[in-house]
Design goal:
Length: about 200
């Protein structure tokens, strides 16, 4: 079971290449930005990538002009991100549940939410809200189908995702990913949600 930082770190240290690692940014990153920019995602804004792993998405977002902080609680992942991408982004070894992170303008979440044990989901969503400015955007790439695996990743349905998000977020977009990597085609969906104004500021 991958839950604690030590478990994830051991996995990184032992794996020649983690099975989720695509060695490049997810192709749906561009699709997510196309959805979020008309919703007020500020080009050049400050953006967090929780569970950044080896940093591919964070580096791609930085190349697109955002001021990016890639966060992972596994030291091996953060060292790998820094080795691959240097100072293109800020790399931070931290637990996403730490109360003292952020606030950021936006979050790009690719396989961090789905890596959580399902009982931790409400606390994870609360952390996303707490780490955003009021009105900030949470963008997430999610799996509704993990092909019978025990997880992680853990599948979540769009309906469950809406119910989890709505106490703290207005859901702006919830729909299938159209530009998935072939290995994930038909299994991913996308969320863009705005932190509700004034909740927790
Ligand atoms: C499935 S991997 C995905 C990595 C990267 N997003 C990618 O797609 O290549 C999930 C990542 O989340 C990190 N992670 C899990 N729980 C975390 C937490 N509470 N705080 C920070 N990072 C966490 C793990 O160390 C791991 O790097």
């Amino acid at each position: 079971m991958l839950t604690h930082a030590d478990d994830w770190n051991r996995y990184y240290a032992d794996a020649a290449r983690p099975e989720w690692d695509m060695d490049r940014a997810t192709p749906v990153l561009a699709e997510v930005l196309d959805l979020a920019l008309p919703q007020g995602l500020r080009p050049g804004g400050e953006l967090a990538v929780p569970g950044c792993g080896y940093g591919h998405d964070a580096a791609e977002l930085a190349a697109r002009g955002f001021a990016v902080t890639g966060i992972d609680f596994a030291p091996f992942a953060i060292e790998g991100a820094r080795a691959r991408y240097g100072d293109r982004a800020t790399w931070m070894q931290a637990d996403w549940f730490s109360p003292d992170l952020g606030p950021w303008d936006a979050i790009f979440d690719h396989t961090c939410f789905v890596a959580m044990d399902p009982p931790r989901r409400p606390a994870y969503v609360a952390a996303c809200a707490d780490h955003l400015h009021s009105g900030g955007l949470w963008m997430a790439v999610l799996f509704h189908d993990v092909s019978g695996r025990p997880g992680p990743p853990h599948a979540v349905s769009p309906g469950e995702m809406r119910a989890l998000a709505e106490p703290r977020f207005d859901v702006l977009h919830l729909g299938p990913a159209l530009r998935s990597h072939p290995r994930r085609a038909g299994r991913e969906f996308l969320l863009v949600a705005r932190r509700k104004l004034g909740t927790g500021d």
